[in-house]
Design a protein that fits this description.
Blueprint (H helix, E strand, L loop, with lengths): L1 H6 L2 H23 L3 E3 L7 E10 L1 E2 L5 E4 L6 E4 L1 E2 L3 H13 L5 E5 L18 H11 L4 E11 L2 E2 L4 E3 L2 E10 L5 E10 L10 H6 L7 H16 L6
Parallel strand pairs: 2-7, 2-8, 3-6
Antiparallel strand pairs: 1-12, 4-5, 8-11, 9-10, 11-12
Helix pairs in contact: 3-6
Length: 233
Amino acid sequence: MSNKFHDLPPLYRLIGSILTFILILNIDCQFLGGGMKSDPLPPRAGRTVVLGFMPAIPEGKEAGVLRNPISGAVVMAEPIPAGVTDKMTTKLFDLLRNYEGYELVDLDKEGISAGLHSSEQGISDIETFKKIGHEYSAETVMVGYIYRWREREGSDYSADHPASTAFDLYLLRTEDGAILWKGKFDKTQASLSENILDARTFFRGKGKWMTVEALADLGLSDILGESFPGAFK
């Protein structure tokens, strides 16, 4: 079959190659998701406290394996640089404001999220989230963890080590702490030649090696965009 393809006129071979590439790209967009896992958010969640992101392991600590306090999953985490969670929380809130199904409460400006882990000795995270939701008369709480944040080493067109990030996000019911929705993004950027099936990320990054912040922005927009089809500008 390969010999028959090469016997075709150059124009036909070119058209065939383009159609094959489009098919691969379409499969990637529909099924692979580029490290993204997300189900649709409930269309209505009432008043929602946006606690935003927290580091699974703060800067200055050692990398290690830990158990997610919300899902119970065992995950590998690395220290997250200071300031990253604030930037990601701001991005999250800005994206959520474009969706009309939620009445948002932003606690980041009040410094609430930064002190969650030390707010009450011995209390589990999920109990703390429930308590904050009750204090603000909210039906739901949105919170997530960042597990990896590796900046690229190199330039836009030549990277020794690519950007890499992993985070998840949860919508919890204040009443009992039940998980109403969860989204996850876990990706290390690869070149087109290394992973043709991830062409979607390659072209959305304009053929460049992205910074970790750009990669994370893409991931956050993706997991929320899957939940809010047509909701974002």
